[in-house]
UniProtKB/TrEMBL annotation:
Organism encoding this protein: Actinacidiphila acididurans
Protein's job: Part of the binding-protein-dependent transport system for D-xylose. Probably responsible for the translocation of the substrate across the membrane.
Locations listed in the record: Cell membrane
Name the record gives this protein: Xylose transport system permease protein XylH
Chain segments carrying region Disordered: 1-22
Keyword Translocase annotated: no
Membrane-crossing residue ranges in chain numbering: 57-75, 87-109, 116-133, 139-160, 167-187, 207-231, 252-270, 276-294, 321-344, 356-374, 381-400, 406-425
Composition skew (Polar residues), residue ranges: 1-10
This protein's UniProt keywords: Cell inner membrane, Cell membrane, Membrane, Sugar transport, Transmembrane, Transmembrane helix, Transport
InterPro entries in UniProt: ABC_transp_permease
Pfam families: BPD_transp_2 (PF02653)
Topology in membrane: Multi-pass membrane protein
Amino acid sequence: MSSDKSTIDTSKPGGGTPAEEVPPATVAAIDPRLLVREQGFKGYITEFQRKLKGGELGSLPVIVGLIIIWTIFQVKDSLFLSSSNMVNISFFLSGTGMIAAGLVFVLLLGEIDLSVASVSGLSSALFAIFATTHGINPWLAALMTLAIGAGIGAVHGFFFAKIGVPAFVVTLAGNLGWNGLMLWLLGSTGSLSIADTGPLHILGQRSFFMNQSIAGAYVLATVGVAALLLGSLVDQTRRRRANVPYRPTSEIVLRTVALAVVAYVAAFVLNKSSGVPNALVIFLVALVICDFVLRRTTFGRKVFAVGGSIEAARRAGISVAAVRISVFAIAGFFSSLGGLFLAAQTYTATLQAGQGNLLMLAIAAAVIGGTSLFGGRGNVWSALLGMLVIQSIQTGLDLLNMNQSIQYMITGAVLLAAVVIDSVARRTQKASGRA
């Protein structure tokens, strides 16, 4: 018998079949928390190098891109990083960002929803009709509008998951149909004014957290930093008791300090003008909730499972149809919510709501922020990062009095770059056996 342990003699009696080589066992991936705990600072370098070689770039490209964009515009116009301009960016990114956050759920399945812009426009019209034409309480009107948005998304999901119509076709039909319904509802007047009351007053451009109190921004920064620290410590304790790799205390402190620097600098800059817009606060709260749902709940794990492999998800006992329907319902809900955000910018519902490049910007925000078009990879914070890039480009070019055509071309180029990076990263992960 051969002493080579990598071969097994499978010769049959009377046969001359040679021994077959057994494929070498796959090397188990080292948990980065364990690596850091054993190697200290060197472990961070090793893990970073491994991620780069494996195509796991995360949010690094968009953060680097955002720094470059801000640097260029600040050099061109010193007003770009002024507090008033930062307030404008943080306010105007929220509406489209809400729509992009809902799209992230759909993209995680490897699908697309082309109806989100039309649903947002229809929602603004419905809210105006409920609150203005019929005199319904604005808060009840908002709840009714959001429920209708979620219902529309569920209908799309039903045709996709149960009937088998491709999501592209279903939502393209929805894009046309819901836009036509909005035009029909507003056809006689062309627009409806909305009173500066209720939810739209809270979301409006003149509404700031804690009524422009200088403490408001710092309160938000403190809450965010404390939440990260507390959550990290709880997770560390839970993992330590379960005797599984956990994030070392040094890394928790480092992450907390990094967030504190960003949060308090942002608070300082925004406070020099008007403070933190309510729209941004609600947008961030929505992202925190969505992030918790995706990363900490069974439903979130099911979404990633279906996006990663439908057949594997089915064999694991996951109801693929239920996940698909619920995801499209979430996208419809956030589209409707985004429509209310956008309506609060002008206090009107017009025929132009949901038109133009809103759909493309929402999709671009999610993809530029790091959510993969191929499904199974991404997070809701990509909606914030992507909208920061897009809104920064739009605002910077406005300051430079550039034509809107230039904005479209630059945004398109950034979107293409994001998709190329995503595609290359995916191929690298496959080559390294991590996809």
